[in-house]
Amino acid sequence: VFIAIVMTGLDQDLMQKNLTCKNIGEAQKNMFWFVVVLVIVNFLFLSLGALLYVYAEAQGIPTTAKTDDFYPMLALNHLGLVVGITFLLGITAATYASSDSALTALTTAFCIDFMNIEKRPEEKRSSIKFWVHVGFSVIFYLVILVFNRMNNKEVITAVFDLAGYTYGPLLGLFSFGAFLKRPVKDRFVPFVCILAPILTYIINEHSVEWFDGYKFGFERLIINGLITFAGLWLLHDRAGKRYVPQALSGQ
After folding, report:
1. What is the chain written as a DSSP string?
2. Where do the TM regions start and end (predicted)?
């Protein structure tokens, strides 16, 4: 549940389209239909995966050691040339769609927050954005190579493992803002968001000896969020006023 909340409800790429809606009602309608479509799409993918295994068993095709390799093996070796080409095109399109939005977001954030591009002359902005985009593309490529070399799990499992560390601070920030609405000392917030995953990793690595043999799984996300929440609580301005949105305050 918490993974679904942070990887969907708190994901900028998925939620930013709600900001373009004319009002809250339109945004709520968009959220409703997004959930409906998401459920249908997930059901179709799960059904496709199950049917592929049924097909392989019926045809006597041995399964692969890693589930990530199963569909590529079928598409490229057993389902014909057309399916193989379609598979490659689909993988390429899906990869570009997701990586492009991430690269754009990183480029924009870096140029504005670190390069102060809005203060640069207009003729230099395009060049700066281009090289920053190229730089992040190279970093992405290197990260993929390292991930492929080091990862020995299925991709979806590895993604959820990483989400426990990367999305935890986001969950803590959102929860603190939603439930307490207290101002915090902003300059210390990044340190909390960096420290929380580190502490979560330490707890996870020693959980067996510290918690009588218990090994943390995807609940790392909750631990991470709680640590972030606690850190923000320690940093909150006790003399500050609670923030009340205008829509709720009647202003």
Report:
1. -HHHIIIIIT-HHHHGGGGGSSSHHHHHHHHHHHHHHHHHHHHHHHHHHHHHHHHHHHHTPPPPSSGGGHHHHHHHHTS-HHHHHHHHHHHHHHHHHHHHHHHHHHHHHHHHHTS-GGGS-HHHHHHHHHHHHHHHHHHHHHHHHHHHHH--S-HHHHHHHHHHHHSHHHHHHHHHHHHT---B-GGGHHHHHHHHHHHHHHHHHTHHHHTTT----TTHHHHHHHHHHHHHHHHB-TTSPPP--HHHHT-
2. 32-55, 76-96, 130-150, 162-180, 187-204, 216-235
Torsion angles phi and psi, residue 71, rounded to 5? -65, -45
Structure tokens at 18: 């709600």
Tokens 């059904």 map to which residue?
47
Inter-residue contact 83 to 75 (CB < 8 Å): yes
| Residue that is written with structure tokens 């203060």 in the block | 119
- Which residue is listed with tokens 């979560």? 200
pLDDT tens-digit series, residues 52-102 = 888 888 888 888 777 777 888 888 888 888 888 888 888 788 777 777 777
Residue owning tokens 């389902």: 79
User: In DSSP terms, which residues pair with 184 in a beta bridge?
Assistant: 236
Which neighbouring-strand residues pair with 236? 184
